[in-house]
Amino acid sequence: MKDHSQTPSLEDQLVPLRARIDKIDAELIRLLNERAGVAHEVGEVKKVFDAPVFRPEREQQVIARLQGLSRGPLHDTHIAAIWGEIMSASRALEKPTVVAFLGPVGTYSEQAALDYFGNSATGLPCPSIDEVFRSVEAGASEFGVVPVENSTEGAVSRTLDLLLSTSLSITGEIALPIHHNLLALGTDLAAIRAVCAHPQAIAQCQRWLSTHLPHAERRAVSSNAEGARLAAADPTLAAIAGDRAAAHYGLQTPAAQIQDDVHNRTRFHVIGGTPPAPSGADQTSLILSVKNEAGAVYRMLEPFATYGVSMSRFESRPARSGSWAYYFYIDIEGHREEPRVAEAIAALDRIAAFVRVAGSYPRAR
């Protein structure tokens, strides 16, 4: 049996460590306020030149630089999260950032918006993706966040259609891991008569629902947060949503992580704001169409190979003209101002019937 009589107590060992942490925290708060003061000066200079407050390419470069300087134990994801919030707070001192998202409060779209702009941004929940676009176009919000693609269910067609018709540019992207939870007022699965969720969320949890709630109705609603709102008022209803919805609507989690694909992710576009300058890790989104003739799609893709531009996404949507024509949504690596990308786009202009550069922006971290 070990003799602990000579060993300092837990409290004796923690006291000096806590004192060191308190001293470090005091220095950190001094430096953070000093940094915020300099950020405010930057804001004053920007006002003179009418320059944008939010510069995603600059913020990405700052975070990448700090990640390169770090020697641990903080991971790169920790550094990105910490400095993202620091810069969000600094931006709020210059000018409130209003961001529209598909509501109500508690959706994954809201989570994506907060992940990208930080918790100091002001969220504006909208009832539909159309309303997110309208909000930014009308100036009610500076930015919008819209879902564009899910790794399980594919493209969000309404977003693609609106990107074709809007004058707004894509200025950023977020790749959000989707962790679906079953939410309800209680924890008894036998009490659940219906599950309310967005159709894509229901589709992403089909296997789990068939195994654990085979007799429950699957009821499609406008958003997962709307499902959570309904479940909060009826003990026979359950929702499929994330932690934010559970906290906001006061729901319990009878089952967590019920998505069929553990790697399920949704990609969101940021729309609105000033088009970002090159960051060194960029992506460009294009919308193209070609004449309905043999070899047209092959010729459309040829400039990418000629100029060494890599494609990361290729999607088609009917043009709704009744002539079996299609629009092609393509993501390529690089910024439109890079010579090889600019040359490829110039070649496309000569080949394609329609070319729209929807935006060049930093790739999701």
TrEMBL record:
Residues 285-362 form the ACT domain. SUPFAM superfamilies: ACT-like, Chorismate mutase II, Periplasmic binding protein-like II. Residues 98-273 form the Prephenate dehydratase domain. Its EC number is 4.2.1.51, 5.4.99.5. Pathway: Amino-acid biosynthesis; L-phenylalanine biosynthesis; phenylpyruvate from prephenate: step 1/1; Metabolic intermediate biosynthesis; prephenate biosynthesis; prephenate from chorismate: step 1/1. Residues 8-98 form the Chorismate mutase domain. Signal peptide: none annotated. GO terms for molecular function: prephenate dehydratase activity. NCBIfam families: CM_P2 (TIGR01807), PRK11898.1 (NF008865). This is Bifunctional chorismate mutase/prephenate dehydratase. It comes from Robbsia betulipollinis. The gene is pheA.
